[in-house]
């Protein structure tokens, strides 16, 4: 089973998710998204794979979110995806992609729904 974790090692939730994946006997592909940001196309692929919307991937606690006006209801999916692609710190970490789907795993236990 291929599992990809968009990971931030300084985030406790991200570290917990990584541990849960490994405890399931899976060594995931780890993407350090702050060093290797996902492209706009990769973000779109994640959304399709998980049947998610762009707001699911948006880290609303990030100060930049409000500064860019992304927290407003009229903000479009395209605007959110463009912002995350340009500013990877806006990604609501950790994002996990498996054959069962994709999700921003906050709380960490959401990852269990994506594992065998």
Q: In words, what does this structure look like?
A:
GO terms for molecular function: arsenate reductase (glutaredoxin) activity. The chain has 116 residues and is an alpha+beta fold. The chain has one domain: Glutaredoxin, CATH 3.40.30.10. It contains five helices and four strands, in the order E-H-E-H-H-H-H-E-E. It has a four-stranded mixed beta sheet. The mean pLDDT is 96.
Brief account:
With 116 residues, the protein is of the alpha+beta class. It has 5 helices and 4 strands.
Query: What is the radius of gyration?
Result: 13 Å
Mean pLDDT: 96
What global shape is seen?
A: globular
How does the helix and strand content classify structurally? alpha+beta
| CATH superfamily placement | Glutaredoxin
The total domain count is 1
Question: Biggest β-sheet: count, sense, barrel?
Answer: 4 strands, mixed
Q: In sequence order, what are the helices and strands, one letter per element?
A: EHEHHHHEE
What is the count of DSSP helices, taking H or I runs of 4+ residues?
Answer: 5
**Strand composition percent:** 5-15%
Q: What oligomeric state do these chains adopt?
A: single chain
What is the name of the CATH class? Alpha Beta
Note the gap between the termini: 9 Å
Outline the low-pLDDT stretches. Answer: none
Organism: Acetobacter ghanensis
GO molecular function: arsenate reductase (glutaredoxin) activity
Family: Belongs to the ArsC family.
Pfam families: ArsC
């Amino acid at each position: 089973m291929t599992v990809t974790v968009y990971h931030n090692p300084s985030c406790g939730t991200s570290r917990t998710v990584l541990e849960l994946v490994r405890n399931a006997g899976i060594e995931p592909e780890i993407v350090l998204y702050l060093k290797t940001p996902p492209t706009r196309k990769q973000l779109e692929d994640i959304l399709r794979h998980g049947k998610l919307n762009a707001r699911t991937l948006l880290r609303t606690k990030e100060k930049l979110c409000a500064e860019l006006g992304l927290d407003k209801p009229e903000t479009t999916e395209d605007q959110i995806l463009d912002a995350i692609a340009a500013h990877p710190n806006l990604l609501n970490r950790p994002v996990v992609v498996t054959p069962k789907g994709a999700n921003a795993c906050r709380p960490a236990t959401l990852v269990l729904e994506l594992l065998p």
